[in-house]
Amino acid sequence: MSTNTLLILDDDVTLTTLMTAVAKDLGFEVKHCEDGRQFIDAILAWKPSHLAIDLVMPSIDGIEILKTLARMDCQSSIILTSGIGSVLLPLAQLTALEHQLNIRGILHHPVLPHLLQKLLADHPSVDLHATDHTQVVKPLSIDHESIDAAIRQQQFVVYYQPQIELFTGEVIGFEALLRWQHPQHGIQLPELFIHVAEDTGQIEALTEYVVVTGIQFIQSISSTLCLSVNISAKSLHNDRLIMMLEQVCQRFAFDPARMILELTETATMLDTQQAERILTHLREQGFKLSIDDFGTGYSSMSQLAALPFTELKIDKSFVTTMEASSKSRKVIASTLKLAESLGLETIAEGIENSMAAIGLRELGCRFGQGYFFARPMDAAASKVWLSHWNGQR
């Protein structure tokens, strides 16, 4: 990769001129594009050290540009620019986090030269919401105290990803996904903090928050859609999960049959007798049970037959590789046959394009979710998406 090179994707002449001047003062060589395809071609040919991307140009899909950069394994430092709306900003942050892109920061209009200088000089990332100053952010410490403070300060939020009936295109529900909206570090994914919450016992409070928030969201948009919630293995150690779920459903008059509890394969193996007792009780109360990330753990036919699951979720690692890997397709096909023999519904995650959706449907998978339909969104964006989706059908 070349040193001190900047490629700009923007159609604002004033902003482009400003960024070019600031970058050249720092010794950068600068090039500029207004077309997304030309921008990608220029990256491949030039391999710039830095990129500046306007996410809200009318002629491009900014999120799709980020996904393309991820597929290219782009190592450039990326600066996002423009007056990003409340819906697009979290989507951009999540895309960057989930695909491990090197986002240096986000600059809002009007762009201030000294903020741009800091980003181009590879100083620590600035506050995503900065308007007139930079802020050096210390590394995020995740422990009992920081999680407790985040709970008290209401920094945890729930995002939602729709689940689709692959044969009809009908939305059948949403999966609730916990995020930590840190004031300095932005959106943090559960992989970074859930294991700490499990060790400290705070997972129970977080799970209840997701359940309560998720129910309120679902009830605000539909009387029939389902809500999927991830359940930690630690929650199967005692009856507090049962009591919490029953009390919350009673409090909001929410039918347990509309809630799908997702558990990983390994979760049910820590204490199989305890897991079977708790899951059987929940199933008797009407809750549906999904075995998540199937194919990546250690489940056996006997375990699947013994536990009262109602749904089998195909892991995204197989779905995202099914077009290129015959082994992945064979795993998916055999998993679907297994689910059918056990009377389980099937849902696939990680559907990123129409070919995957069509391929899964042809193999007999009934439900699916993934970026092809929608990425995880906050409640407001989810409502807008649902209205738009239903309006197109």
Structural features:
393 residues; 2 domains; Rossmann fold; 15 helices; five-stranded parallel beta sheet; alpha/beta; TIM Barrel; globular; eight-stranded mixed barrel
Q: Secondary structure elements and their pairing?
A:
Elements: E1 5-9, H1 13-25, E2 29-33, H2 36-46, E3 50-54, H3 62-71, E4 77-81, H4 88-98, E5 103-107, H5 113-120, H6 144-152, E6 156-165, E7 171-182, E8 186-188, H7 194-200, H8 203-221, E9 226-230, H9 240-251, E10 259-264, H10 272-284, E11 288-294, H11 301-306, E12 311-314, H12 316-319, H13 326-342, E13 345-348, H14 354-363, E14 367-368, H15 379-392
Parallel strand pairs: 1-2, 1-3, 3-4, 4-5, 7-9, 9-10, 10-11, 11-12, 12-13, 13-14
Antiparallel strand pairs: 6-7, 6-14, 7-8
How would you describe this structure to a colleague?
- It comes from Methylophilus glucosoxydans.
- Keywords: Phosphoprotein.
- The protein is of the alpha/beta class and 393 residues long.
- It has 2 domains: 5-120, Rossmann fold, CATH 3.40.50; 144-392, EAL domain (TIM Barrel, Alpha-Beta Barrel), CATH 3.20.20.450.
- Helix content is 42%, strand content 20%.
- It has helices at 13-25, 36-46, 62-71, 88-98, 113-120, 144-152, 194-200, 203-221, 240-251, 272-284, 301-306, 316-319, 326-342, 354-363, 379-392, and strands at residues 5-9, 29-33, 50-54, 77-81, 103-107, 156-165, 171-182, 186-188, 226-230, 259-264, 288-294, 311-314, 345-348, 367-368.
- It has an 8-stranded mixed barrel with strand order 6-7-9-10-11-12-13-14, surrounded by 5 helices.
- Strand 7 and strand 8 form a beta hairpin.
- Helix 1 (13-25) packs across helix 5 and helix 3 packs parallel to helix 4 (88-98).
- The longest helix is centred in the middle third of the chain and has 19 residues, at 203-221.
- It is globular.
- The N and C termini lie far apart (46 Å).
- Mean pLDDT is 85; it is low at 123-137.
